[in-house]
Design brief:
318 residues; alpha/beta; Quinone Oxidoreductase, Chain A, domain 1; 2 domains; 10 helices; binds NADP nicotinamide-adenine-dinucleotide phosphate
Length: 318
Amino acid sequence: MKAVRVLEYGGQLVFDEAPAPMIAGDEILVKIKSTAVNYLDLVKASGKARQILPIDLPWIPGHEFSGIVEQIGSDVAAWAPGDAVFGANETGGAYAEYLVVKAAVVAGKPSNLSFEEAASVPVAAQTAWQGIFTHGHLEKGQTILIHGGAGAVGAYAVQLASHAGATVIATASCDDEAYLNSIGASRVIDYREAQFEKVLREKVDVVFDLIGGDTQKRSFLVLKEGGHLVAATQPVSQEETARHRVSGAMMRLAPSGDGLGRIARLLEEGTIRPDVATVYPLQDAAQAWKDLAGNLSPSGAGAVRRRSHGKIVLRVAL
Ligand SMILES: NC(=O)c1ccc[n+]([C@@H]2O[C@H](COP(=O)([O-])OP(=O)(O)OC[C@H]3O[C@@H](n4cnc5c(N)ncnc54)[C@H](OP(=O)(O)O)[C@@H]3O)[C@@H](O)[C@H]2O)c1
């Protein structure tokens, strides 16, 4: 099959022939329609985090996808060949014509989304859901502060928290204020102009930190006692959580077909919506990575984008 691969750490992306994958009993073979670019792909390929994020070389990047089920394993009852699905996995492999995944991590593609839109959803939306509800325990009537609210994960967090009946405050660039208000933020604090801990009058129940660094350190000052700090980019100091009498931990996305199915229903009823910035053909994956890397700045512990919001998608039409 055709695929984009990383042959060595730090090497170029190579578009060529790769062996087609084989399925086990609990897996399905998906003919990929689209995949999306995540910063995680670049980090893994660089080898800089190989101790905690190892890959087997040659490696096919791509942690999220949409496509059509081509074949099912002997233990799979939930899917049949021809079903349109979308999903995420922890190992990559979606920059290719075919991907093998556990049947349990996919959900039916929302019928109102294109394959490009569907491929942009699973990583960001599931990270947002798990961050604010599973780890942040956000409830109706509470207040959440979302750092990086206009980013891919942040925009889903804003929409999901607002839909759940929480008051949503986001930090972002001032250019994104109208966008964030339109998707449910009641207040936007421009991180370039104001220190959020100085302008917030009341403390919040949950902070969802998609930035890290100094932003995370200052977040302890705005949390109510008993509140939750959920970080997506770096571990949380347990000394600080004890000192401020809050809970805090770094989350790691755990892909789940059931969870993604709930998100699919919200997409289908129009409660939340995806945001695709650019679509490239798979062959141009290297250019897509250059675009993403060019937009990144080490503002916190994680890499963060500087320009317009929305995900970069790769169309796999071979
Ligand atoms: N732990 C996990 O399982 C997991 C899963 C998914 C993602 N992540 C991580 O989560 C982070 C966010 O991902 P993403 O895909 O949402 O990133 P993204 O799309 O690049 O968005 C980052 C956003 O942060 C904004 N920003 C930059 N500096 C800021 C600051 N100091 N305060 C507030 N906002 C700031 C950027 O705005 P401007 O463009 O205007 O600067 C941009 O809108 C990344 O580090 C990613 O690797 C972790």
